[in-house]
Amino acid sequence: MKKITAKELTNEEKARLVIGKNTWHNEDLGGKVPVFMMSDGPVGVRHPRDVNSATSDTAPSIAYPCFEALSQTWNLELANKLGKAIANDCMDLDIDVILGPGVNIKRLPINGRNFEYLSEDPLLAGLLAKSYIEGVQNENVGACLKHYCCNNTESSRNYKSMDVSTRALREIYLKPFEIASKAKPWEVMCSYNLVNGCRMSENKKLYNILRNEFGFDGLIVSDWGAVMDREKSLNAGLDLEMPYSKEHLDDLLNKIKEDQIDLDQLNTCAQRVIDFAFKAENTRPLRKKTLSTEDRYDIAREIANEGIVLLKNENNVLPLNPKEERLLVSGAPLNWYVYGGGSSEVTPLKEYVKLLDALKEEGFNAKGANALEFNRGPVSCVGNLVGALNQTIKENITTSIVTISQDNWEQSEGYNRQNLLLSNEQVSLIHEVAKVSKKTVVIIYAGAPIEMGEWIDEVDAVIWASYTGEKGNESIAKILSGKVNPSGKTSETFPLLLEDFDSINAYEDARSCVYEEDLNVGYRQFVTDNTPVLFPFGYGLSYSNFEYDNLKLSKEDKKVIVEFDVTNTSNIDGKEVAEVYVEDLTRVTYRPKYELKGFEKALIKAKQTKHFRIELGEDAFQYYSTSYDKWTVNHGVFKIMVGKNCLDIELEENIEY
Ligand code: BGC
């Protein structure tokens, strides 16, 4: 198709171009402009069969582990592979742009979208998103970085202003967008909420930062229904409103007639839509499937293997020897596939793998507890409890596996959870089973922290499964048998109590949410004020033991090179994530006690030592100065800390910078 310019079009045609044609496509003006298709969502393609609907049944596609699980791998290569796999899925369904990744910071663990987002830390979230985008786009499919920005709560998300300081915006909330923008995403999607009183679909100031400072040169698209006033959003620089809105189009056309629209701005946005449509069309012939369906399932398995976190393993009760065990599995997830709700829901390509089948495949003698009733959800645990108790006692069960879930109607886009509690029924199941069992292992399928203080001391092991996708139970079974050595680490703080978060105690009403905790988001708060936690940020157990040694710091131009050795002193190969934190010892202004500035995950063979070399750039030492209006280093002494998690610092040394 011959490329046209916006100037060749009538104003009416331009107006039609800047609003979608239906729920998933752009307007093609009767063939003058190529059509492109966008589809959710970050962890598998959610392709509604009806283009005029957001919720109708969706075509089956591989359901990968959720982003919470991906982030717990701390593995940038896996994020890249996931992007590549999803781009291949897009090719199967003729999709040009996948609507992800979402990089909003996990400010509150009750946020309904917690499972869709990557971390409470901007570096971890930003780097994973960057790598994911590169994975998608190297296959000539577009990625859409979302939701710009501060979609940190689902309660009244269309009306609430996120009132946040410039420093917290720059250092915490914009940072993952800044980092991920380096991958040149094809699109950025604005969020529903307002920031400091200005709706994000109309936020010229933050769009200017995105374009002029972060170098974004693609299409700014609205979240679905996030535009309230098309003229204002146009003037701010929002290129494409999605989905189609007759009301907004009529309004725009009327205003054009009445000479009320800035035609240069209309031209600019229309031209961007045209450029984008031709880019999609021109890259389409370049798309070649590089992965078979089985290859993509292997990637899903790798992410689940590395994203599941072993939270507790008293007396090394795990791994279990399949030849010596009689397992009894109870709890609702025994019979249900568990996933998060909302626009990232995917209809699995195949029948999901049940935990019992996966355990049997691993050679375990395993059976499910009898149930009086078995409905989906937490309450059904009661029906299961009686069976679980009787069988544990009578059938010489060696290990009880209690499965617990919070699924798509508890953790979902559109609303927040009220608390971090399990239901009474779930807690009774754990209590009662633990009382009569020789060993109890709890497996939790959820996409956001829950409180565990009530029962955790009564059980021997806890596996944080996350939402592991349609093949995820295979990984859980392999972790139980020891075939997979767990290497996942938390990407957010698990508090003892929800109230321990300053962010939960900050002022909030239906109209505004004040980020009173400012820079002290997630672990930044807990390491600064020494509040005890259930599990700290960056925490996860392995079947191997790792010892850290020989920290050496040196400087190369503006970089600090952090070198150290990690030895696997155990008899089994394992992967370890080494985390580097930096503290500004001579700070001139407030800074959280210390912050993550580098990390690396590596396989370390049994009895072997691996040398790590992590480079810290100037940005590792900077803060955003609101007096100078720029990133600034306060030159002085910095403490470099290397640890297994944010509280377990193994090595440290000071350096002048
Ligand atoms: C979500 C987006 C999603 C869009 C299209 C919105 O409700 O916030 O993340 O991409 O719907 O389904």
Highlighted features:
single chain; 657 residues; alpha/beta; 17 helices; binds beta-D-glucopyranose
Structure write-up:
With 657 residues, the chain is α/β, with parallel strands linked by helices. It has a six-stranded mixed beta sheet with strand order 11-16-15-14-12-13, with helices on both faces. It has a five-stranded parallel beta sheet with strand order 1-4-5-7-10. A four-stranded mixed beta sheet has the order 9-8-6-18, with no helix packed on it. Helix 3 runs antiparallel to helix 11 and helix 13 packs parallel to helix 14. It is globular, with a radius of gyration of 25 Å. The N and C termini lie far apart (56 Å). The mean pLDDT is 95.
How do the strands and helices of this protein lay out in sequence?
Blueprint: H1 11-17, E1 38-39, E2 47-48, E3 58-59, H2 67-73, H3 76-92, E4 97-98, H4 122-137, E5 142-148, E6 161-163, H5 166-173, H6 175-181, E7 187-190, E8 194-195, E9 198-199, H7 204-213, E10 219-221, H8 230-236, H9 246-257, H10 263-283, H11 293-307, E11 309-313, E12 326-330, H12 355-361, E13 365-368, H13 381-394, E14 399-405, H14 424-436, E15 439-445, E16 461-464, H15 472-481, E17 494-495, H16 502-505, E18 512-514, H17 523-529, E19 533-535, E20 546-556, E21 559-568, E22 574-584, E23 595-604, E24 609-616, E25 622-625, E26 630-633, E27 637-643, E28 649-656
Parallel strand pairs: 1-4, 4-5, 5-7, 6-8, 6-18, 7-10, 12-13, 12-14, 14-15, 15-16
Antiparallel strand pairs: 2-3, 8-9, 11-16, 17-19, 20-21, 21-24, 22-23, 22-27, 25-26, 27-28
Beta-D-glucopyranose binds at residues 40, 54, 99, 146, 223-224, 343.
